Write the structure tokens for this entry.
Amino acid sequence: MKGHGTRRRRVYIGIATALVMAAGVTAALGQAWVIAKVSFYMGEVGFKKAGTEEWGGMMLSQPLFTSDAVRTGMESRLEVKVGEEGVIVRIDENAELEVSTRSLMEWKGAGTKANLRSGRLWSNIRRLAADRENLTIETPTVLAAVRGTVFRIDIPNVATTIMRVYQGEVEVRDNPAPPGGGMREVGPPREVAPPREVTPQQWLELVSANQQLIVTRGERPQISDFDVEEDASLDWVQWNKKRDKELIPPESPPEEPPGEAEDQPTGLAVDLLVVGQEAPNFAMKKMGTVEYVFLRDYAGELRIEAQMRGNEQQVVVLSFFATWCKPCPNEMAVLTEMAREYQDRGVQFFFVNFGENDRMAAAWLETHPEIEGTILMDPFLTTAKKYGVAVLPRTVVIDKNRVVRFIEQGYDEAHYRADVTAALESILKLGN
């Protein structure tokens, strides 16, 4: 299936008489605060501090100041949260990205800029307070102003940029920076020339949903529809769409008849939790008792009390549920069966109640004899918030080293058991 019709506009530069401001207005103040953070990475990644040439390692939540850079190696990926609203930007293998602030003198004025020097980039700004975020993406050949948009950019070579837009619109212009980067000198104040038709080196385009823009240095940009179905089959696209679904709650949940929804929104404002992140610690009371369960009783560096009891590190499976959640009983019944299968293989299963009391949970469980296991209570939603429970049910698998290895949002009867089993077998095979 092809995307909808092409919409292209020839643009004439019509700027009223103006004075070029004096040189020296920069974004140097950006050094005073963090403008991005590393929220996820996998494989071989590197970090380079502004003003240096040496690449080093990085950590999760690595702060990035203006002109700091990150890169990925073979079979590696990295995700950063840019700006105050946490706009998500990801790069694929063999990519390099620099983040910085824009000065008032630059296109679109003051704001945040991400400079993709090589590789592939994906960004989803559709649901992250786009009206307040002002981000531009720079490549060797284009500048793109993005707001409320889902798009990706490929740089197959230093002279070419390919952009595909999935939702929203992207305003794109030529990158006037000289090859190899660097600042151009700004002369004394002068009057700007009158309006004239754009040339291949001076253009502005609006790229809409299901359209692609191909720009080669020295040539006019080309806009066309792209094959949506073929594009959706690409691993890079599939992986990003899955990540977006995990991280970004729907703008408005679909209206469905009671009992028919496959998952149910909780309305809770939650923290970001992604695969590869260290699992947040928790302490939750077992239903009907005064005994507390800590994550560090089973994963990561065990508590002294757990060591004294002879506990050993185990894989932990958390399933968040509520008595009003229609798909939860089916998911919990599957996990009850799996808990029996894995009881001698170092896997610990817990059901976490979402914001209810012991009496309500116990009464509900009496009507579901197919569900057995340890019930942990989270009446104030402290753990649910840390574990990103925006939708029920939600399953999180944590390895022995206390690293999140699998997240499933909602319940898909056709694939749920196979997906959880595959995650557990992979973890156990690696000895994690």
Q: What stands out?
A: The domain at 12-245 is CATH 2.60.120.1440 (Jelly Rolls). Residues 1-31, 127-132, 178-201, 250-261 have pLDDT under 50 and may be disordered. The radius of gyration is 25 Å.
